[in-house]
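Memo to structure team: turn this sequence into structure tokens by end of day. - J.P.
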Amino acid sequence: MKATTLIQRHFAELETRPAEALHQLQTQALARVLDYAAATVPFYRERIDAARAGLAADAEPRQVLEAMPLLTREQLQAQGDALLSPAGRAPGVLSFVTSGSTGMPVRVTWEREANGVLGVLMWRHHRWHGSRPEARHATIQLMPRRPDGQVATPSAMQWCPGAEVRPGVALDSATPVDTQLDWLLEQDPHYLMTYPSNAAALLQRAAGLGVTLPSLERIDTYGESVPETLPALAQSVWGVPLVDRYASRELGIIALACPHGEGYRVQVENVLVEVLDDAGRPVAPGETGQVAVTQLQNLAMPLIRYALGDYAELGQPALDDPLPYPVLRRILGRQRNMYVLPDGDRLWPRFAIGLADLDLLRQFQVVQRRLDRVELTAVPTRPLSGADRERLEAVIRANLPGTYSFGINEVTDIPRSAGGKFEDFRSEVAA
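Reply from structure team:
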């Protein structure tokens, strides 16, 4: 039997255990992460030793965790390779730069084995929501660019680890919405995976044009918060459910949509999630707080009490709930705007990776002021030269089409909104 199949069977069996049993397994995984990080990463050694110094000698791993300060994105960016463990310096690890939707690039390193767990969690998502492997799956998401600048659309895809490799059905999300609709009509998929903001733009445009997708059975979304009106829009326009998953590039899959009710179920095999108030105390069910996540599988670059910048409302399982996973009722934050083209069409902006790869900026925000004006607000790693500014402008113009004037504003800090959110792109035209 394949190793992936064994892991899938193990994860399916875990779903049948009592919540207390999964809680104990998660505590054991946390103890392993804390001990390994303290032994191999000086940054964490100081934090963990300080936390343990104020506790009893037999303190539980969760008590140690709760006594540690949060890890901010700024600290992750500043520490860089100093957060790598020996496992993170070994051959064969996966390393990538991501800015998420924060406009603050960080480099993250993953062990391949830990990355494989994410594939099994995707398999769980499909199983929970009744996906059919033989059906047509269409993906509209940010696609990487090849060295020649062309978008690298995959020619083959897997529904989940161990599944049959099928012809790729994928499109770059930085494609105008009208073109996306034409492509979807050609592909006639059963399932569509994309970002919530892109799904909203597709549905709104489809409603206006009367476009239907007769074979579509479900829309899967990820990467942003889901507006409360979006699931109803998906039902009214295309007659399909919208199923979201909560994930980040740094941490992987955090929570999956509940298959038999509202909200999300935290994937405790992969992460430990805390929802905290402004004083750092756990909130009660029904209350909203900031999300801090500890990665339990990836020892290459341990992320312990990592504050994503998101907020969530804590939920509570029903008494007769068959699943042993904690509940997040709503995820707040990371909702993106769509870029508006001169003809009124819209697209999902894809400049973030290009800006992050230049290694010139600690943080950035792009704002579409008008149809003929785009501005980049930048917190640079050093004063920008004329050549630096030209490189930054080239990335923006390569990814945001249209005729517009462009400006760069150098600042020392980009504040969050009154609600504590940060967006790397805003369109005042869309607003």
